[in-house]
Amino acid sequence: MYKLATSLALLGIMFFSCQQGETSKEQPTTLLSDYYTEHHRPQAHFSPEKMWMNDPNGMVYYEGEYHLFYQHYPDGDVWGPMHWGHAISTDMLHWEHLPIALYPDSLGYIFSGSAVVDENNTAGFQTGEEKALVAIYTYHDTAGEKAGTNDFQTQGIAYSNDKGRTWTKYEGNPVIPSPGIKDFRDPKVFWHEESSQWVMILAVKDRVHLYQSANLKEWTFASEFGADQGSHGGVWECPDLFELPIEGTDETRWLMIVSLGSGGPNGGSGTMYFVGDFDGSLFTNANTADEVLWLDYGKDNYAGVTWSDVPEADGRRIFLGWMSNWQYATKVPTRPWRSAMTLPRVLSFVQTEGGLRLKQAVVAEMEGLRGLKSDLGAREVAGELDQTGEIEFDPDLSEMKVHFRWEAETAPQTLGIMLSNALGEQVKLGLDLAGGQYFVDRRQAGKMDFSEAFPGLHLAPAKQLSNEMTLEVFWDHASVELLAEEGLTVMTDNFFPNERFTKLAFFTEGGKAEMTQAELYQLEGVWAKP
Ligand code: FRU
Predict the structure, then answer these.
(1) How far is 46 from 299, CA to CA, in rounded Å?
(2) Ligand 1 centre and the CA of 128: distance in Å?
(3) Which residues, 6+ apart, have CB-to-CB distance to 149 below 8 Å?
């Protein structure tokens, strides 16, 4: 009895301290009823059970399972010796954590990379019925780095013959030695059907290199791209390259994604893209060299790449990014984990007046998380219109599709949606009509003294303005993903309120608008205790 009472009390204390965000590192999270309920813990997004996470890695689909590997330091909640953490899912939303897939070895830490299904056993790793999954990653040799050399990043491969459950590193590693360039990393590999070969895109300092291979083991340099293209506000990292359909046509173009270590659109790290053609050897940019197209204008979407081997019958190209920013990623006030991924998003091209642009849509599987629904009819918004009583759920774990319309004569300067709490902390987002830009304002969002780079009003230029707009928004305790202009303008941002946001309001400043329709859904969390 005494024992039971003490354990209950202990559980109570642990639960309370988790609510306060003070969970100790040693806490066996899986044993408690507080699984994934800590303050700021995302409910609909992937985050590691505990400790540090950065880039998504090795995203590959095989036999009904989406694999997600990720940059992981299992012994600390800041960046450190990198491993590949691992999780699987059938819908990219409900995840099962699996043991760490790749550990550092004598060649170095395991940095970012990709994975493919070796359908034709080109590497010869397949032993049984299951196709071999092959991971291609960067080795980062800290000894070499400390010794001041410049050849400490090389590329290695590993394979699995049991659907990704266990991995063997190839004895011939590294498969690509360093050419003596410090930043030489993040291989993304794909099978190029037309030329029947593997192609690797690799980030090399301020550009990308393309390599070709018949067997994933021997690689030949093919071309480079980017020294005089796009932005060079930071080092290039985590590239991706693939063919993508143009909506409403039978045509395709190629999309190259490149993450930029600093110099993002609202400061810190960001992700840009190029539209063009690829012939198996060479990528050519369809736009002018100095044009910079940003994939996301929020501050928290970095190092994102797409799933490999999604079946043709499905046909989607699905993206996932790391929902943080190197400016403050190691300092955000979450415990016992750090960082989450974005929601998975389907990519496509849309023909706009300015040329082909990338469109993002949250995967349809997300509808499976919809709970209670509130349909709000038309109402005038002039100033702040509190809607808290109109919905039966907390707005900070919800999906919203809100349509606004306004008259030219009485048009507001800004309008949008605001979540707030009783402490007066708030996040506002919407359209700055006067400035022609969408925004997310987290300047009063709660905790932010952990980094000067955190507070901010983030802006995204509108592609076109009219007298109406629809905002599609996904809130998840500590993050918001805003898809404006039907997914052509996207902003992803974190925030850390001291208390949860329970209030919802629509607002205008300097004029009025009509909120013609709002479809709001509560979202259900994905983290059941295993
Ligand atoms: C991007 C990145 C990659 C690297 C990894 C190391 O966030 O810097 O370039 O492989 O993180 O963790």
Answers:
(1) 18
(2) 34
(3) none
